[in-house]
Structure formats: structure tokens, C-alpha cells
């Protein structure tokens, strides 16, 4: 006498599907959370690398000769003077609170207002090189680009992986900045840069990534 193979009943199938659904509801958010945390950790590591390269270049005080179109002459400037140059017209406007105060005005840990001074940016509009905000920062931008591009074939590639929930527009640009009220406070920020110049267009640092991330 042949035995008839017994399959799953409809109730058993429904129970299995329900269990799978419950496990998915528990595990998927956790998995996505781990992925987001890994991306954030990666961005912080990238920001720290940018920060360390910046400090190394400033401390070296190496002179670089570059063409200044405003002077119509070659000029020799070291990286520190280039980084902190007070001569750029855009920087003067920011420090005076005359340009996009809602974007560049920040509050420090003690509640004091300061202005965030961006020096160079790296993003989809900069063609794999750090771009100076003002002409006076050309030597620093050149040195930072050359130093970070040594292992990447001539172009700097530092992707931004983390995206805070609800963030719009997307984060696609790095900013190396310092604080107007304490120039020793060098910070690495991320933001958006989609058209025009950082000042005349849409560029804006939104989140600090290193040190002490704000996202």
C-alpha cells in the first residue's frame, strides 16, 4: 500500500510567513542601522584624514610660487599664510557678517557666535582637486590636492557616504574651514555645492564631521 506524502497545511504556511514577517520587521531596521553607522564611521575617518593632511601642510610652512592674477605677478607664499590669508574679499565679507549670515554664522560649545570660514572645497564641481574659496588660498589648495592625490593617480577622490535622515539637498561636498573667533579651530564639514561659486551659488557647509561630528 503506497503512502501519500503529507504537505504543509494552509495554517502552517500562514504561521511560517507570519514568523518570517516578524523576523524581517525586527532584523531589517537593525541591519539598515548598522549600514548607516558604518557609512558615518567611514566619513569621519575620511574627514580625519583631510584634517591631518591640512595640519601637516600648515605646519610645514613650505613656500610655493603661484600666479596671482590680481597682482599680475608670480607670488611666493607659504601654506600657513595662504590658509589664513585675510586678504580675500569673500572672507572679509563673511567675517563681517555681510554674506549669507544664516549659512556661515554658528554657535560654539559655550554659546558664543562665530563665523565659519571655508578655505577649500572638494566635490562634483571641482574636478578631483581641492578648490580655493579665494585666490589667496591657491597655494594651500594646490598643496592639499597634490598631497592627497599621490596614491590616487592625480585626482582626489573622497566620497561622502552617509546621508542623515530627511537631508535635502544631498551631501556631496567637503569643506575645510576654521573659526573666525579662534583660528586654531580647524574643522572639516560636509554640505552641498550644485551650482555657481560657494558664495554666489548654492554652496554651503551643513554638518561638521571632524572633530566632534554634528550629524
Order of helices and strands: HEEHHHEEEHEEE
Give the N-terminus to C-terminus distance in angstroms: 70 Å
Shape: elongated
Number of helices, where a helix is a run of at least 4 consecutive DSSP H or I residues: 5
Provide the residue-averaged pLDDT: 81
- Residue stretches low in confidence (pLDDT < 50, at least 5 long) are none
Count of extended strands: 8
Q: Strand percentage, roughly?
A: 15-25%
Q: Helical percent range?
A: 25-40%
User: Could you say which structural class the secondary elements and strand pairing correspond to?
Assistant: alpha+beta
* Number of self-contained structural domains: 1
Query: What's the assembly state of these chains?
Result: single chain
Work out the radius of gyration: 25 Å
List the helices and strands and how they pair.
Layout: H1 10-60, E1 63-68, E2 73-78, H2 79-83, H3 89-95, H4 101-104, E3 105-107, E4 113-122, E5 131-132, H5 138-148, E6 173-179, E7 182-192, E8 204-210
Antiparallel strand pairs: 1-2, 3-4, 4-5, 4-6, 6-7, 7-8
Helix pairs in contact: 1-5
Amino acid at each position: 500500500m503506497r503512502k501519500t506524502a503529507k504537505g504543509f497545511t494552509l495554517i502552517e504556511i500562514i504561521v511560517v510567513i507570519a514568523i518570517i514577517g516578524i523576523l524581517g520587521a525586527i532584523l531589517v531596521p537593525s541591519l539598515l542601522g548598522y549600514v548607516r553607522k558604518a557609512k558615518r564611521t567611514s566619513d569621519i575617518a575620511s574627514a580625519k584624514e583631510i584634517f591631518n593632511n591640512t595640519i601637516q601642510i600648515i605646519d610645514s610652512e613650505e613656500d610655493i610660487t603661484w600666479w596671482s592674477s590680481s597682482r599680475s605677478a608670480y607670488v611666493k607664499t607659504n601654506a600657513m599664510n595662504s590658509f589664513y590669508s585675510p586678504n580675500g574679499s569673500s572672507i572679509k565679507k563673511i567675517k563681517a557678517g555681510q554674506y549669507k549670515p544664516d549659512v556661515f554664522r554658528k554657535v560654539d560649545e559655550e554659546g558664543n557666535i562665530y563665523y565659519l570660514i571655508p578655505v577649500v572645497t572638494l566635490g562634483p564641481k571641482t574636478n578631483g582637486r581641492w578648490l580655493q574659496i579665494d585666490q589667496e588660498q591657491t597655494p594651500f589648495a594646490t598643496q592639499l590636492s597634490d598631497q592627497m592625490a599621490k596614491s590616487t593617480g592625480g585626482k582626489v577622490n573622497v566620497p561622502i557616504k552617509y546621508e542623515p535622515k530627511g537631508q535635502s539637498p544631498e551631501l556631496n561636498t567637503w569643506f575645510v574651514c576654521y573659526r573666525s573667533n579662534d583660528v586654531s579651530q580647524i574643522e572639516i564639514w560636509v554640505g552641498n555645492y550644485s551650482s555657481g561659486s560657494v558664495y554666489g551659488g548654492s554652496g554651503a557647509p551643513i554638518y561638521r564631521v571632524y572633530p566632534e561630528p554634528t550629524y
